Amino acid sequence: MKLNVAYPVTACQKTFEIDDERKLRIFYDKRMGQEVDMSSIDDQWKGYIAKISGGNDKQGFPMKQGVLTNQRVRLLLRKGHSCYRPRRDGERRRKSVRGCIVDGNLSVLNLVIVKKGEGDVAGLTDKSIPRPLGPKRASKIRKLFNLSYEDDVRKYVVRRELPAKDGKKARSKAPKIQRLITPRVLQRRRHRLALKRRRAIQRREQASEYHKLLAQRQKEKAMEKRAARRSASLRSSASKSITESSSIKKFPMPAKSKITTKVAAAETKVLEKRGKVQKVQAAVKPKAATPAKFKMQAKPNAASAAAAGKTTAAKKTITKKTKSSGKK
């Protein structure tokens, strides 16, 4: 079995192959995350304590934390689970994984040194690998070098020296600092705030104009309602007067009969001869004509018949007198 040992302090990592089964027994039946004393492996590991971080079996299937078995199982895995990387959104797959308990069927066991022992292990603790890339964000550079906001962050960027090419000068590379506050950033911020203020003023003006227009429309609507009420009251009063006049005209005076009109005509002729036409016209005025629908022919009653008889008798006497006067 291979032991892949990492030491975070020096950023070094080294693999050791151990064939002796007795030396590996200290790892058997241990779970991922447990710490193991490595003093029994060899003298160079005296005082070292390592934590089991994982491993792979002989077929290459990885160990999964939380699966309490030393065998291989098939689990339905989705995004966020270890030992699986989804290719599509929401994708799930059933994958074969090994349990978190160590046994002899593993090919590689991953260990992390938690506590350093008495001596150094060659290639692991005796050298250190520098960090190739420094921090890129401005706030993280300040945190690393304990800088204040007044200090210039650009002077503290970790630069990486590149080897010189044929006949050219050696040069260095540095990352582009992110979230750096520059005069242009401040200018854009001021511009955004100015636009925001301008929009707020414009919204206030539009709101005031809208409220004015709304008040005017409401006033016009109220005036229209008042005018409608006034016209309705005028119409109702006019209809009342019409109904009163129509009730008066329901029962008009009866029209004169034909006989009476003839008698009246004869009398007027006689009176004209005597020179009393003006008085008769003033006394007897023609009444206003009644509507056609209210015209009714009155039947001659007894009184009218008697009057007709008298008029005929008067005519006869007048004719006799005229004849007698002519004879004389």
UniProtKB/TrEMBL annotation:
Family membership noted in the UniProt record: Belongs to the eukaryotic ribosomal protein eS6 family.
Gene Ontology CC terms, in alphabetical order: ribonucleoprotein complex; ribosome
Gene3D superfamilies in UniProt: 1.20.5.2650
Protein's UniProt name: Small ribosomal subunit protein eS6
Pfam families per record: Ribosomal_S6e (PF01092)
Biased composition (Basic residues): 317-328
Record's compositionally biased regions (Low complexity): 230-249, 282-293, 302-316
SMART domains: Ribosomal_S6e
InterPro entries xrefs: Ribosomal_eS6, Ribosomal_eS6_CS
Species annotation: Trichinella pseudospiralis
Alphabetical keyword list: Ribonucleoprotein, Ribosomal protein
Superkingdom as given in the UniProt entry: Eukaryota
PROSITE patterns per record: RIBOSOMAL_S6E
Listed transmembrane segments: none
One Gene Ontology molecular-function label: structural constituent of ribosome
BP term (GO), one: translation
Sequence segments annotated as region (Disordered): 218-249, 282-328
